[in-house]
Fold this sequence. Notes:
Structural class: alpha+beta
Shape: elongated
Number of strands: 37
Strand content: 25-35%
Number of helices: 14
Number of domains: 2
Largest sheet: 10 strands, antiparallel
Helix content: 10-25%
Distance between the termini: 71 Å
Amino acid sequence: MIEQVDLIVLSHQDLGFTDHPLICRKLQVRYLDMAIDLAAANRGKEPDQRFYWTCESNNVVWEWWQNAPPERQELFLEMVREGWIEVCAMPFNHQPTLSAREWRSVAHWLPQEMWPALGPRTIVQNDVNGFPRAGVMALTDVGAEYLWMGLNCDTGGSPVPQPSAFWWQMPDGCKIFVWNSITYPAGYLLFEPREWRKGPLPEASDTRYRPPAHGDIFDTSPAHLRQAQEICSAQLEKWRRAGFRLSRVAVSMTNMWRIDNDPPCALLPDFVAAWNAAGLLPRLSLTTPTGALEAIKSLCADVIPTLEGEWTDWWANGPASTPRELSASRHARRVIEALDWPQYKHSPTVAAELDDCVRQLCLFDEHTWGSWKSAAQPDSPATKAHFAEKSALAYRSLALAELALGDANRALAPKTKGIHVLNPYSLPFTGWVTLSDDCLRGDYEGVKDTVTGRKLPFDRLPGVSAFFTPATDPKQFTPLDTARVFPDAIAGKCLRFWVEGLGPHEMRTFRLLKRLPPPPEFSLPEVRLDASGWPARVRWQDTTLFDSPIGDLISLEIQGFAPRWKYKEILALPTVAERQAARQKHSTLTQAMPIGSATLRDTGPTLICEQYLAHPRLRVMRRALEVYKAAPRARLRVTINRLPKPEAAEVFYLKFPLSRRGYDVQLSNGGIPFRPDLEQLTRTCRDYFSIDGQVTFSKGPSRLVLDCHDNALVALGDMNDGLMLEQLGGDLSTVYAIIYNNVWYTNFAGDESGLMEFAFDLYSAGPSVPGFAPAAFPVVVV
């Protein structure tokens, strides 16, 4: 029998769901001031009548602190010391798209001098349907002991019952106590028959709606208390029948004006005091998470299970609704990784900008990509305003990081004439260095490597000629250049030269040459083409990189009067078989088809195959596969121009059939590797996986790596979206890179259209070949 219910009062921070993200942040700061006053006003009251407040996300505390006068800061610290206010360990509720560096930033979000005073011991992740082990490990390193999950199972699910507790063991052997609570606002529904929230989720500025006041909810009259106890007892009995066996339970609750981003509910202390004074059971207690979880742990620490594995997230498909911004955030991450080189640390620009860039990326990965109506009204001013604020975080971080890198390179560059090429990464680089012909003052045919003595010709490619009046010749424009302002197919506008074996952190100088001898010849791998001229097999002497065409685009479009609701209907079916049958009945799979034959071009070190394709949902698609002759490696670049279609619920996949049956497959999230299916919690997402970038197949010393530079989501074995698989099976070596997904009916972008670009590297490696520096951002040219 449940004898006590601990109530955790908080405001769920959801940056953009209810209001413009900037307004959400301002409101949360305002609410902290209100909570401080409520807690201070209750200081002299009996324990049952005191107000407790939980800062779910500690970025609110940091933003409030920077502008609070000293006397308010001290009052806040008094409330924390006395236990009326608890500050939790994470700044936001996060998507699973953070890197290892970003998780370290999350763990040190508050200034070091504030940490001892606040002592965060509990991580709270609300709403989101998963949590990476990387986040747990980063936060336990700085003192976190508990993880409170208040997930929202809409279009997702929970690996264990709600509520329940378990130990979660990390790869390093450490354990954390996990309280898998009911969804974050549902404590309210333990006492009230229905939501008090009304209307189409009003904005804070909408004066037609107001927060609840005395008499609206949590009435203390005897009749209402009896009704509340009946509701509470019925719910607790459901939990008991489902197997809950503890005498104490902890739940959270928010206010009922909008549920998210709401002010403190000041009505609860009187309600709790009246309930307990009436002798009703179970006993109610207002408290904060750590105290509640310490008490629950004391009841069950020795009997609850220990679970291991990644907690993959059903909501991970949301960020794929904005491929351009996601790509920008990944590009920024690679530039920031380059800035790790100790030589750069002497640059004042690097020191000043690096932390800010990382923090903006962390904020970009906060779990909200849009408002409650972002999919319903994708072109409304409010939706555009919301997403402008969100997307700016990725673009701003990228711009600042690029400037810091440029400044650092100018400071490091030798004064001698030439082109100075730097590999700022800890892996070797072999590949192309690209220039614009505009940056060279004179006519040159190539360069001389001052280390090896090799003379390297320029590979000349067509490119953009800015502020150039185009002739009436359609060949000056590629099919991708739909604006037709600056021609993008002018011969020789882009130059590149081949760099071989540039070591980690090596800078090499190349001298410009006006004349060159004939270029050296490279032996070709075996390349077999399909009927359209696209490579279907590429093999070196002892390695087959692939033996089926890679880079096919396939779309999955849900059909129906309201497709996103049909998708939700499919997810709600009870079995995988029923979901498979329903998805097949209510969806269409369409593959992009080649437009004529592919073109082949031998550059010397590489062979490039380029092809345009047609698809009913695209204005145009181009793919280019560059095969490296000297090593088992290929690079695929795909550009699509998606046509707008607000009503569509669709997923775009790029197919990589890699023929590695029997190989171990490994993914990584937040820097922590895991084997899908084998090393993840049961009933967590297997339809798709959020990854740091690589999918690795290994057997003994042999490795095949697919490096996804611009997307964050892959499916293994098949196109599994909407199936809610309970287990992966069969051959997982066909990888489907998910480059677009807008099936969410809220909270994410509904209709991103226009040009989108994606790059992938596929290479074979062994013990002596550790990998390559990121070819999407290979080197720095000074």
